[in-house]
Amino acid sequence: MAYSIEAKILPIAGLSGHLYIEIYDDKGARITQVNGFAIHARTGKVKAIGVPGDRLRAFVDKDRILGVTKHATRDNPVHRGVVLFKGEAPDIVKAITAMQLCAYDINRMDLRYNALTQNSNGVFSAMVDSLQKTIKLEPGAVDKARKLKPWMPGLSACFEVKAKRDKDDPGSAKTGVAKKLLQRLPRF
Fold first, then answer.
1. pTM more than 0.85
2. Is 43 part of any domain?
3. Residue 186 has what pLDDT?
């Protein structure tokens, strides 16, 4: 089976939800999860629900995931979703790198969390935008993902992410989390 990238939704109050991305290997095991979370302004800890004063952070991480998805796999999902991409490892490497760089740029902006505008769904939008610029997504998949729930606050609040970096920038794909995630993929 091919590697896949899927948009998932954690339902909230029946009408809305928290959109996130899962990336699976060719056996259906999670490689990483991509999320936007509210972070407590003083402690830096991830919060289930943000309040005024909190910060918004983007994560491309196999360890910092939604707790309820801990044991989920592609074939045993916890939340419904939409397949955004199916393909081979080289494209997954490109996708993870693009999203890691996007997360770095979002986090560098030090955005204030706002439940109605700058939230996890805005991070999802930015990540999907970075994917669309990097790999060819399944036709119609992005629209299907955006329609998983009738009300998705923050979904259209796509952050302007800068692609220009210095060569020593810590957001480089050769450093940090991206390097650790990519070590799980086969070398070509």
1. no
2. no
3. 44
Give tens-digit pLDDT for 150-185. 778 887 655 555 444 444 454 444 444 444 444 444
* Residue 166 belongs to some domain of the structure: yes
State pLDDT tens for residues 9-50. 998 887 888 999 999 999 999 999 999 999 998 999 998 788
The answer to the question of residue 46 being in a domain is no
Its domain, for residue 75, covers 3-38+58-106+118-182
The DSSP symbol for 159 reads: -
- What are phi and psi for residue 93, nearest 5 degrees? -60, -45
132 vs 95: CA distance, rounded Å: 9
Separation between Cα atoms, residue 129 and residue 102, nearest integer Å? 9
What's the alpha-carbon Rg for the chain, to the nearest Å? 15
The count of domains in the chain is 1
User: b/e string for 94-128 if b means 16 or more Cβ within 10 A?
Assistant: ebbbbbbbbbbbbbeeebebbeeebbbbbbbbbbb
Distance (Å, whole) CA 154 – CA 130: 17
Encoded amino acid at 59, one letter? F
Residue 26 lies in a domain: yes
Range list of H helices, 62-175? 89-108, 120-132, 141-146
Q: How far apart are CA 12 and CA 4, in angstroms?
A: 25
Dist. CA 121–CA 174, nearest whole Å: 27
